[in-house]
Structures are given as C-alpha cells and as structure tokens.
Design a protein that fits this description.
Blueprint (H helix, E strand, L loop, with lengths): L7 H7 L5 H5 L5 E2 L9 E3 L4 E4 L2 E6 L7 E5 L7 E9 L4 E10 L8 E9 L9 E4 L3 E4 L3 E5 L5 E6 L11 E8 L2 E6 L2 E8 L10 E6 L5 E12 L19 E2 L19 E2 L9 E3 L2 E4 L4 H4 L7 E6 L10 H7 L3 E4 L10 H13 L5 E5 L4 H13 L5 H11 L4 H13 L4
Parallel strand pairs: 11-15, 21-24, 22-23, 22-24
Antiparallel strand pairs: 1-17, 2-5, 3-4, 4-17, 5-16, 6-13, 6-17, 7-8, 7-16, 8-9, 9-10, 11-12, 12-18, 13-14, 14-15, 19-20, 20-21
Amino acid sequence: MKPSITALAAILLALPQLTASAMAQEDGFTSLIQADSLDGWRGDLESWTVKDKTLIGHADGTLRANRFIVADIKPVKNFELRAEVWISAGGNSGLQYRSKERPDLGPFVVTGYQCDVVSNNDKYNGMLYEERGRRILSHTGEKVIIDPQGQPWVVEQMRVQNFAAGEWHQYRVLVEGNHHRHWIDDVPTADLIDLDEQKRSLSGVIGVQVHVGPKMEIRYRNFKLKRLPDNLPIIQTKDITIPETAEKVVPQGGWKQAGVFDMNAKLEPASIGSTTNTFRAGDIWLAAQPAMDDIRLLPELGIKTIISLRKPEELDWDEKQLAESLGLTFVQIPFKDAGELTDKAFADAAAALKASPSGQGTLMHCSSGNRVAAVWLVHRVLQSRMASDQAISEAKQVGLKKPEFEQKAIDYLVRKKKL
C-alpha cells in the first residue's frame, strides 16, 4: 500500500530554487581545497594531486576497487556543495556525501550517497547513487520518493541533457533534511526524498572518488561547502502522496539483489543463548553449533533460516526436524574436511545466503566456526567486495583456525579472478 503523500508538489515548489547568479551572491561557503597541497584531505592520497588549486585524480586502469579521499572536517549534515568538474572521456567519478569511511572493507573504502560524475552516460551523469548500498536511487532526470519500506517511486521526469567530457561543468548538491537535489550547469539532474529511516543517512563525510575501469582523469576546482542549519525539517510520510501514475522502480540487479546493502554490514559480536563464536553482520548471523534450546530462541531474534555446514551424522538429534517445527527454513550444505570443501559447496552457500529475504535473519553455523569462517571469507570478497586481507582477518575472528580451510577459500577466489 502506497504511503499517503498529497502535498509533494507544494513541498517541492516551496523549497528554494537558486539560480547561478543568486548563488554567486551568497556567502558562507568554505573552500575544501587548500592552495596547492592535499592538506585537509585523507584517504587514497596516492591517486590525487593538487595543482593550481585544482584537485586532480588519476586511475591507470588497474584498480580492483573504487578509491576515495574525504575532506578532513567534522561530519556534514545539511549543506550546499558546489564544484567545477572536468572529466576525461570514459571517466567515472563522484561527489560523495553523508557517507561513512569503512576501513574494515578495505583500503580507502567509503559508502553512502553520491552525485555521480560520468562522462559517457547521460542517464548516470548527476544521478543519485548509494555507494555499496542501495545503488541507483534516482537516475538522471528523475524525481523520486523512496517510501518507508525502501521502495523507490519515480513521480516525475525531467529533461536529460548531455554535458560533454573534457569540459568544465558546475556541479551543485543541496541536501536539506531528507531531501536531496543535484544540478549540473543549473540543470536539475536528481531530486529525491528519502523516507526510508532504516537505510538513509542524515550525516557523514564529504569525499571524491576514482572508479575502477579504464584509465581516466578527474579534476575538481572551486570546490566549496556551505553548512546549513542542523535542525532543518525532515519530510514525513504524512506530508506527501505518491501519485497513482508513479513508476515503481525495480532495484538495480533485480529483486533478488534487493537488500544487498547488508552485505557490507559491519561484523559485530552477538548472542544466541549459550552458543559460542556468535557474530552478526546485518541480517546474517554466524556461529558454532547451537544447542536445541538455542535453536528455539531463533524466531525471537528474527532468524528465519538456518544454513548448516555440518553433516547429519555429526549430531545425535535432528536439527532439521526441530528447525522446521519452529517454522524455520533449514538448508544443509554438508562438508567436514577441507577436501570436501568444493567449488559447489562455496556456490551453494552463496546461493543460500542470497536466497534469504531481506530483513529476515539467516544463521549459518558449523561445529566450532572453522567451516563458517572459510565460507564467510569467500562471501565477503565476492559479495561485499571486501579486500582480501580484511576478509582473511575477519574470518580468523569468526573462527578460522585451520590453514587448509583458508587455502581452499583463497584458491576458490583465485579461480574466480578475485585475487
């Protein structure tokens, strides 16, 4: 059922629409580029230089993951950001905002909202993307409302223009409460209201990106930030109506990929009764073997699926029967020794984790944590795009102790061309 949202047009019209000349008369902007140095920035400084007060990023075509630098300033909530931007043909970058630094995922990883800077796709240039999150939230030329359940709706189409590569263009990002707007050369490219309280962000870092792909260069100059009051209002569901004509957007990658933001969730210690080696990352729980009484606790924790990596004969009671009597889905991917950890076992585990509905918990367990850790290592690299060193370290935290299991996971990732 669509939320009740009648006053959308009035809200959008009431909010300020600044022209280039009006912006030029405003003060309160602070430059984020300090003379001819990278002072005031942190992150992947090797990919960036400053020359003539211009921030210049380079990618040589060999990057395995997107790299970021962020402004070394206190977190930003409501703001207006302006920058003149030049990008080479085939280049891909972005203005990152209200974002999080995630060193646990790899070197110089940042997640969160992004105003895309794309040279070869007019429907992407200036769009609103969520890095390692919900992905495309609003293509260029779309006014979008994300409802409280996380469903995006296109409520209006705007004209899409071409902004040629190899030329300077003025990018502008204005974020007030949960209302996000982007412009290129005073042309609106994205307009989004985010009603999803679970997944949206209301504060974070400002940064810029060099993207995986072909060799490219990106330049930013006159890069300025104006902080707006922190107490600007949040648009509420009751204030807006999604028209009957709104287009229901299928998530990028299809419905099976909905909720992939959980793949990047931080791993944290968790508790399931007396079960040992228990951790949680988003909707996924990892543990050693739970006792029967602990299995009975799972529905209260929101866990709907059990993935067991143990062989049935390892237990003297029927875990599958108990799980199904509680209304849980039970999946068994049995292997005990490293020699039994085949490519099929890795693939079956990945399929089982992906099949779990977003918002419902999934517990994957083995006997002590060794087998779970090996599978989790692969999952983190392939699905979370975590750097291998971080994934190996995290797997050891989960319970990876046997070198032969670690080697099996590494060999599989090599065959998948991820190492």
